[in-house]
């Protein structure tokens, strides 16, 4: 039976490229001369540090702008509250969401079922497997999911016959 997977993934290479572009821009920007700013990419988050809140805001705008230009879906980026110390140092984390979490996956499955498609949907390892008897039905499900905004990026892969 034909099937495909609905996933929510962000390309790690594009994130890395965007952060490298942001670092290069920081080195040439006049308003960041003499300021100590840092962009650290960890496994599932980006940590921004700066001298003060103003530099942190500028740094965050640069990073988000570069991510957006590289085609990274910003719906999978959760901005934590900025931590500003009494010394003036500012730090902020941008968490990168990979995979569909429980509530979002249940919401997508419920929407597909509510639309009346003749498919079987199941959550497997942070992705939704959609199985049906006809390819046309599966393509209709893909169009339906693309047409709705679930608050996360939705990608489709592993289309099998």
Structural features, described:
This protein has 161 residues and is of the alpha+beta class. It has two domains: 68 residues, Alpha-Beta Plaits (2-Layer Sandwich); 85 residues, Alpha-Beta Plaits. Helix content is 37%, strand content 28%. The chain is built from four helices and nine strands, in the order βαββαβββαββαβ. The strands form two sheets. Strands 2, 3, 4, 5 and 6 form a five-stranded antiparallel β-sheet that branches. A hairpin with a 3-residue loop joins β2 and β3. α1 packs across α2. The radius of gyration is 20 Å and the shape is elongated. The N and C termini lie close together (6 Å).
At the first level of CATH, the class of the largest domain is: Alpha Beta
**Shape verdict:** elongated
Q: What is the total number of structural domains?
A: 2
Figure out the total of helices: 4
**Distance between the terminal alpha carbons, to the nearest Å?**
6 Å
CATH fold descriptor of the largest domain: Alpha-Beta Plaits
Instruction: Report the mean per-residue pLDDT as an integer.
Output: 87
The stretches of 5 or more residues where confidence is low (pLDDT under 50) are none
Number of strands: 9
Beta-strand percentage?
25-35%
Which oligomeric state applies?
single chain
CATH arch. level architecture of the largest domain: 2-Layer Sandwich
Radius of gyration: 20 Å
Helix-strand pattern, N to C?
A: EHEEHEEEHEEHE
The largest β sheet comes out as:
5 strands, antiparallel
What level of helicity do the residues show? Answer: 25-40%
